[in-house]
Amino acid sequence: MIKLNEVDYIKLSELCSYRKNDIMLSWFLEGNPSCAAWVDNIEQPEEAIIIAADFCYLLGEIKHPDETKQILETYAQHKIINSCETQWVTYLKENLSDKLHFSKRYSIKHEPNAFDKNNLKQLIEKVVPEYEIKSIDEEIYNEVLNIDWAADGCCFYRSYDDFKENGLGYVAFKDGELISIASSYNTYKSTISVTIGTLDDYRRRGIAAACAASLILECLKRGIYPEWESANMASVALSEKLGYHLDKEYDIYYLR
Questions:
Q1: Of 27, 52, 138, 218, which shows the fewest CB atoms inside 10 Å?
Q2: What percent of the chain has pLDDT over 70?
Q3: Other CB atoms closer than 10 Å to residue 242's CB: what's the count?
Q4: CATH number of the domain that 174 lies in?
C-alpha cells in the first residue's frame, strides 16, 4: 500500500463517490492536514484506506489484507470506521476481532427549512445571563485547543485564520470558565459539521442547546447549513430540541 500525498487525494474521487454527500469525504478530497490515505495504485486506485480526522473509510476491493491490517492497527485506533461494505465488515471481523468493537450512530435529516428562529432564541434566553455565550475569537480559539473535551471544535482547521474564514463556533462561560461549546468540526463549501461538548457538571441545563442555537442562528444569517450527526440518543434529543429530525441509525466499528 502506498501513502498518498495531500495533492493526490483528489484521485480517490471515484472510490469516494459510493458515499454521496458525505461531508467528511468531500472535505478529505479537498486536501487537509488532518487526513491521510493509502492506496494500492496512485493513478488507478482500486483499494483505499482513508483517515479523515476521527473517521476511517475502507473503500474498494481488499487486495492487500496484511498491509491493511498493519495500517489500521497503527493509524485507525479509536477512529470511527464508517458503515463499510459487506466485504470490509467481514475482513474486520476475521482479521481484527480481538480489537474490534461495534456501535451505532444516528444520521439526522438534511432540512434547511426546519429551524424555528423564535425557538432558537428562546433556548438562548433560558440560560442568559447566568451563563455567558460568546462567539469564538482568536483568544477563545487558542483556549479551546488546550481543552481535551472541547478541542474538536477548532483543531481540524489549519490555523485561527482558517477557522475565522471557514469555521464558526460559540462557547459558554461560567465565572470565567469555558463550560460548553458548539462549533464547526469541519467545513465543506457552505456546510459545516456541528460538534458539541459540555463539562459533565453542567450537562442537562440547556447550556449546550443555547450554544448550538447561537451557532445555528449565525449559520442561517450566513447561508451556511449546520449538518448534524449523533453518536448517541442524548445527541439526537438535543438535535430535535433545536429543530432537526432523526433520519436513521447505522452501524459503525472502531478499534481499541
A1: 138
A2: 100
A3: 23
A4: 3.40.630.30
